[in-house]
Write a structure and sequence with these properties.
Rossmann fold; globular; 8-stranded mixed beta sheet; 9 helices; alpha/beta
Length: 283
C-alpha cells in the first residue's frame, strides 16, 4: 500500500455502448478501439454474438476470442485473462448482456437453482461483481457493448405511419453503468448520445456517429495530466483560432468551468486578426 500523486496517464477508459440490434455497437466499438491505440493488431474482441465480430475483418487485422455458452461470469473472466496475456491494448467485450440473460448467464443459473430466491441472489451476485471488478482492474482499455430492450413506436412520415425501433433499458445487472467512465447510447441510425461521461468530453454534445476520432479524443483525455491552471495558461498563450481549438479539445472536464475564458480569448483573437487584416481602424 503506497501513496502516489494522481496521474491520469495511469488511467484506462471503461466505455459502454448500449443499443438495440442493428444500432452498430460492434462496428462503433472497433472504430473507437482503433482510435484509442492506432493499431488493429492491439485490439481483441471477446465475441458472444455468434462470430459477428468477424464480419468487419476488412477494417484491419484485429483478433477475436469466440466465447460460446455457457456465458458464466467466470468464462468472461477467463477470456479477459487471455487478452491480458496476449498484451493487447484494447479489449471489446461484445456483449456483456449474455453474462446476465444468456444461456449459462446469471438469470439462467438462478432459474435452475433450488431454494429461497433472495438467498440465491446473495450467492450469485458476488460472482457477477468479480467479473465487473476484472474489467475495472484490467490493464487494457475496455469497451463493453450491451443490448437494450426494444420497443416499437409508430410515427408519421410523409403522411404514412412508419414503425420505428427504439432502444430502452440495457440488458444487464442494474448499476453496471455506474462502474463505467463513459456510456454512449446508440440509436438505430447509429447516432450516439452520452448518458454518462466522467471525462467531460461529450457534455452538451449533440448526437454523433462514433468514429476513430472519438477514440482518439478519449485517448488524449487519458494521457492528459494538465490541471485547470495549466489549461488557463495555454488559453492565454494562444495566438490563432486553430490553437484555441486545440486547447479546447485538451480541456476535457474543464471545458464548462473555463467556457468564459475560451470565449473571451476567442473574441480577442478574432478582433486582433480583423485589425491586422486592415478591415477595421486600429486606434
Amino acid at each position: 500500500m503506497n501513496i502516489v500523486k494522481a496521474n491520469r496517464t495511469q488511467s484506462k477508459i471503461r466505455l459502454g455502448l448500449i443499443g438495440p440490434s442493428g444500432s452498430g455497437k460492434t462496428y462503433s466499438a472497433l472504430l473507437m478501439a482503433f482510435g484509442l491505440c492506432q493499431s488493429w493488431e492491439k485490439i481483441v474482441v471477446i465475441d458472444t454474438e455468434s462470430n459477428s465480430a468477424h464480419l468487419y475483418s476488412d477494417l484491419g487485422n484485429y483478433s477475436v476470442i469466440s466465447l460460446t455458452k455457457p456465458f458464466s461470469p467466470e468464462r468472461y473472466m477467463q477470456a479477459l485473462e487471455l487478452c491480458e496475456q496476449g498484451k493487447f491494448e484494447v479489449a471489446i467485450v461484445d456483449s456483456v448482456s449474455h453474462s446476465w440473460d444468456g444461456e449459462g448467464g446469471l438469470l439462467d443459473i438462478h432459474s435452475n437453482m433450488a431454494g429461497n430466491s433472495f438467498q440465491l441472489w446473495n450467492r450469485l451476485k458476488p460472482r457477477y461483481n468479480r467479473f465487473i471488478q476484472s474489467i475495472l482492474d484490467s490493464s487494457m482499455h475496455v469497451i463493453c457493448t450491451l443490448r437494450s430492450k426494444v420497443e416499437y413506436v409508430v410515427s408519421m412520415k410523409d403522411g404514412k405511419q412508419i414503425p420505428q425501433k427504439l432502444g430502452l433499458k440495457a440488458i444487464g445487472q442494474d448499476g453496471f453503468d455506474y462502474e463505467l467512465s463513459i456510456v454512449l447510447d446508440l440509436d438505430i441510425k447509429h447516432y450516439a448520445t452520452s448518458s454518462k461521461d466522467r471525462t467531460g468530453l461529450f457534455v452538451n454534445t449533440p448526437p454523433f456517429i462514433p468514429s476513430e476520432k472519438t477514440g482518439a479524443r478519449i485517448k488524449k483525455w487519458c494521457e492528459m495530466t494538465m490541471s485547470q491552471a495549466d489549461i488557463m495558461e495555454k488559453i492565454e498563450s494562444c495566438t490563432s483560432e486553430e490553437e484555441i481549438r486545440k486547447v479546447y479539445e485538451l480541456a476535457g472536464p474543464y471545458k464548462e468551468s473555463l467556457k468564459h475564458h475560451f470565449k473571451e480569448k476567442w473574441n480577442k483573437i478574432i478582433i486582433q486578426n480583423t485589425h491586422s487584416n486592415g478591415t477595421t481602424d486600429s486606434k
